[in-house]
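Lay summary. Proteins are chains of building blocks that fold into shapes, and those shapes determine what they do. In this project we predict the shape from the chain. Here is one chain we studied, written as its sequence of building blocks.
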Amino acid sequence: MIIDEQIFLGKSSYMEQTKETIIANMEKQGIDTSIVVAPPPGPYYDKANQTVAEATKNTKRLIPLYHANPFIEDVVEKVDVALRDGFKGVKISPTHDGYGIGGPLTDPVIEKAREHGAPVYIHSGDSIFCPPENVARYVAKHPDVNFVTNMTHRATDAAMTVDNLYLMTYSFPVLSFQRKQMNFPVDRLIFTSDAPLGSLEVEIRAAAISKLGSSDYEKIMGENLLKIIEA
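And here is the predicted shape, written in a compact code that computers can read:
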């Protein structure tokens, strides 16, 4: 089974992608299942989350992720309802929505995810709001929750300090695998295209030429994700 760990569904000022486009690309590239989420930026995601809910309602091939903004009133209640109604995880975007990770603003959302046994995706980067080092420190405070964040050189070093932080492969680190320089456990790498910001075709090709053994390939392309999310 090949699972794409994050694809954006809907429209924002950054991007636009429909359910039909996602399914067509999955068919073309041999993807069995995709985790779909409303695209940033916010600050409001209610309508976008509803689009995701409707698109994933009658198919098992698309798994919904709830995009939350901790600044918004009643966000914890909305997360609770979403996870009860079929969403399988929570996404927060400090870098896009302009808040820092690691304080009382985000804690209630993380606690609600923990109650449901749901993973939390944190959009990271080199911004002042959410660098990977801050993500790793925050993750360490929540050992009972599984987290996923972006792949960067700094992220691999930061994530080595905790056991419950998984990294997206986008952009797939082909040369690191070919040169056997990937200093991160294969058990915590998850295949991601990040489409349409990334290219599903390119990421599938990158995985294929990275000289992964069959066992490692299967872990990265689906098995690792299935350890932390209900698909």
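What the prediction tells us: The mean pLDDT is 95.
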